[in-house]
User: What shape does this take?
Amino acid sequence: MKIIKVSPRGYCQGVVRAIKIARQTAEQYPDVPIVMLGMIVHNRFVVEACQELGIQCLEQPGMTRLELLDQIDQGVVIFTAHGVSDEVKATAKAKGLTIVDATCPDVEKTHTLIRNHVKHGDVLYIGKKHHPEAEGAVSLSERVHLISETADLQHLPELTDVLITNQTTLSILDTADLIEACRGKYPDARVSPEICNATSMRQNAVMSLTDTDLLIVVGDPHSNNSNQLREIGKKAGIPAALLIETADDLKEELLEGCETIAVTSGSSTPTSLTSEVIETLEQYAKTGVFRIIHQNRPIL
Ligand code: SF4
Assistant: This one.
């Protein structure tokens, strides 16, 4: 059995930066309530590790960042790497909260692009409904229209000087299809693809896998980028693609009959969790004995 460690995989620069900012904030404000507006990343182990540092991650399904902000009256608020709207920033400031902004520079770049364009035109923003990054971008202006599927193109008002752009963590394949659908309706539109390098490199690495029987993606079931990697693997023709949270989800019967197994992980997945999966598989490949390996490596 051959184990391929897909590269690059795991934490991206934006997530590493957000975690560093969270740690520094916990050190700087030891006696002040610190609330993260949403999950720092979509990974429950990272969220739990933040809580151990004294940072509460405030997330409630269906609630916007602005609605969540209503629940914070004092202390420090951290904006996650997904970014927030200008209204959220202004409201936090008006409430007198100490603001720590961990928005990823790649997301900030898309916000700047949108802010500049809505001064003279409309924006079609390809993104996932209810995803915090899409919420932040669409809330920048009424001239930004969320496109999650081709049906969303049917009920738009009259648009002028259209720019097509997108969420940074989408599938490169699905986004290309939606951009084409947008251009079908607005042939003169300018396109500014914004999938970040970290996302496209991880997806391209999976797409280039050959002769692989099983793809294992380590990541949280709520992580958009981890789910995308599994979907890309399936579309690339890999016969089986699994998303698992930890090595504990591995079962010997899943591996039987596989000659080549590739392992990757989403950009929100702690390195230690992926390492445990790889080491469990490598030991199984070497000895034929299936035993889950646990390590005591830090999450953050
Ligand atoms: S996935 Fe891309 S946009 Fe998101 S935090 Fe990482 S580098 Fe930034």
